[in-house]
Amino acid sequence: MKKFILGSVISCAFFGASQLEALEVTVDPYGYLGALYNQGIESSPHSYIGLTARAGANFLLDNNWSLGLGAIGAWSVFNNDTIPGSNKPYDNTGDISDAFVKYNTDKLKFALGRYNTDFAEFDWIAGNIQGASIKIHDRGMNYWGIYMDSMLYNGYQYSGQQGNRIATELNSLVAYNSGGKKNKYVGGEVIAAGVDYTYKAFRISPFVLIDTQLPTTTKGVLVQVGAKAGYATSIGSGFYSTTLLRGMFQYGDTDGVAGDDISGLIWIDEAIKYKMFNFGAGFYAVIGADKKGSLYTFSDRTRFYGRGINSPGVPAIYFANDTITGYVFGGLEVNRVRLDAMVAFGNYQEYSLVADYKLWQHKNMKFNAGAGYVYAYSSKAPASIGNSSLIFFGKFSY
């Protein structure tokens, strides 16, 4: 970060000069340059090398306001697509990722423009969106709201407990207005609102989400109503337990075929942390979706890699209709190393092992590299890239 003083001096030939109060500005630059090699291990395997870059800066004023501007780009250096000049798997080569104004205090957070909305802490919308978000904190209550008319999709998946899915932000790019078509994934205008109530070790978070027009052939409104309940506690001898129960009711024609449009989600997840280790298990069911419909989620906090590596986009491959799946997971995180492992079984199957290693760091600059294997298969929905991927990646960030 760099700080400088912005002094404003106003002078006039007839009335002399006056100096306004100095304003301190902290400049916080950020960015990364990353490369990812994705090699399929199956019949007619896919293979590509992708290069992604992002750069921007936040200008933090000393009155709790901030401004931000940033850009993102992605290029397929090599792929085995038969179409000459193909940029797959990236839909777009670049966009203005950030252009926002924010207000940030302990009690009130507000953002407008193109910005990261993770501060709202909503399970089903994360990463960079175009719109406005607000969060109000009052004692044990958080009140939040999000308006979104477009989103930047780059594979980013936010997961609070294990951390963001490793390297997924290097594997995709869909601009806010992709290919000249407004809102490829969003469709209409999205409004979401909810409350987070915390009491001791308990937390409950009900919400409602409305999309005025799904980006499907039959279009129509999407309505979701749901809640998350959590209980976090120490269970002795250094073990820490977090239990989460999620439920959702959805109305929307997500498959573009007229018919039954009502579906739901039941999901329970148990995670245990012991020093640098984490492990646990979960179960979920998507019930009642019509034909090839899905639970339509713009983002999620699952522990899966299938959406980020083998089938980027919206909706997620693992939330297809009539999916019933159980899973076990484990991982570790120390100063330089992070490892995620997952086995899922049922209508959605995943076997993933992804590792990240910090090779070098100097102040706020660092270089990470890693590798992994992801097998993701759904009996209800095909993967867009392939079922099986071996990946290698490197990322310089600051």
From TrEMBL:
Source superkingdom: Bacteria
The protein, known as: Outer membrane family protein
